[in-house]
Design a protein that fits this description.
149 residues, alpha+beta, 4-stranded antiparallel β-sheet, 3-stranded antiparallel β-sheet, 26% strand
């Protein structure tokens, strides 16, 4: 029997709203940049453009996840064969490829993010699962993965 774990829509919607707010602030900064020295003005515009590019990329990723959740696509599927991670691009790992599973909390500028690292015998095939966008507690998911392995 396959276990299907859904996306946590509230987390995705909150990230979409924050990205849109950040884009709004960056656009306002771009339009109202009143720095008197031309060199500083150019540096500020380059930094703001880089922030806009990063926000658009992040917004696109969250919109794709939200659309997947609306289409009832599971974020993660676990069955007797292995794990299918649909959070970004679909990636499948079979149980016989997995060496061990562990959690990691990553501190980033946007806050603390919970990741589950699925290590394989071939390091190029390892999988990172973003537990923050899943509708399951990360410790419960880790226990489930360790039981199946």
């Amino acid at each position: 029997m396959a276990i299907k774990i859904k996306f946590k829509r509230s987390e995705i919607v909150a990230n979409i709203i924050l990205n849109l707010a950040g884009l709004g602030i960056c656009c306002i900064m771009m339009l109202n940049n009143n720095v008197s020295m031309p060199v500083k003005n150019l540096i500020v515009k380059i930094i703001v453009l880089a922030a806009i590019a990063a926000l658009i990329a992040n917004l696109w990723a969250h919109l794709r996840r939200y659309i997947k959740s609306l289409n009832h696509i599971s974020a993660l599927e676990i069955d007797h064969l292995g794990i299918c991670n649909n959070i970004s691009k679909p990636k499948i790992l079979r149980w016989n490829e997995i060496s061990y599973v562990k959690t990691k909390t990553v501190q980033m500028s946007s806050g603390r993010h919970s990741k589950i690292l699925v290590h394989t015998y071939d390091p190029s095939r390892s999988m990172i699962i973003n537990a923050d966008v899943l509708d399951i507690d990360k410790n419960e998911l880790l226990d489930l993965l360790n039981q199946k392995k």
